[in-house]
From TrEMBL:
Domain BioF2-like acetyltransferase, chain residue ranges per copy: 164-329
Protein name as catalogued: GNAT family N-acetyltransferase
Alphabetical list of InterPro entries matching this protein: Acyl_CoA_acyltransferase, BioF2-like_GNAT_dom
Taxonomic superkingdom: Bacteria
A Pfam family annotated for this UniProt entry: Acetyltransf_6
Organism of this sequence: Actinomycetospora rhizophila
Amino acid sequence: MSRDVEILADPADEPGLTDEWRALAEAAGNAFVSPEWYAAYARHYGQDAPPFVVRVRDADGSLAGLLPLCRSGRTVRFAGANVGDRFAPVAAAGREAEVARAAAGALGREAVVLHNVDAGAAWVPALGEGLRGRVAATRLRGGVMPFVPLTGHTWDSFLGARSRNFRQQVRRKERALVDGLGAKVRATSSPGEVAADVAEFFRLHNLRWDEREGGSTITSPTVHAFHADFAAAALERGWLRMSFLEVPGDGNEHSTPIGERSSTPGDRTAVAALYAWRIGGRYAYFQAGFDPEWAEKSVGLVLMAHTVREAIEEGAEEYDLLLGGETYKARFATDERAVETLVVAGALDPTRLLAQVDAGVRRATDGLSPELRARLRDAARPVLARMPGTRRR
């Protein structure tokens, strides 16, 4: 089929493209390949790895799809993959492979690094077929993305499908916070709230991670600025779901006894935060945080349960817990997707050779204790920084 394929350094140069692109991303329920994610990446990371779009139109001029990419040296990857969780060609369902094949033909001989793509996706070999020369995919690592199908559920039926212990915990903890302490959930709802709310989210997120091994991966000022930018755009589009569980008083668990209220109406403190978005039929949980002093009150559990209920009431088809198989996610999720990070390149391409070394190191250290892995990782940090799968946030 005849197609018009073009590389665009600035997608805004083509009138109407951004709106067409957004419509496809919304239909796929994937904010990570939206023009808003791409624009935030371009503003905050584009100087080091310039972004570009490979746009594919059908012969009749309609948009078949596109690949939002960036280039670092001879390596190409999805723009924003350093801060995102799931990537794929932007295309109507079922057309990802043909878009990937057509777009790849416009690329040179760069190695293509694919972070967190669906395992076994048919568009990956199609991308390789479209690249110049003899190429193959090297798998760096795998991961899981838990999720909860919501179609047909009410909040009661969702809880009814969980264990009795889980149901009792959710209801008891919520009553203790809401009825006992006067806790309320507040959502970011106006542009003037975004900057302060994003800062408050990161404050609580960092508190949650400060005492954990390895710490958080989203602590840099650039990451914070990226998300303040994206959150503002997501709010404008009606996607943003940033929620805070707030209690009366100064946030000290012991400052307001159960059954009593703060003497200063309206003086409330956030003890948990959840950063999510609703795009298309998918309600996507990205990150959360809470004050560890409130851990015994299960403030994170209560806030997440609130957002699942919200997703059901909105008519979302799915609550997506995104990348990571953490235990707390398993309490809610009933299904999961497998994802993998790949390098697609020629047999003798240096990036592919590095990828093979990277994959070998990961396999060799899989059976080691977390402490020994951490020591080896610290010792090898200068080398690992050059590996193709590294995500520099």
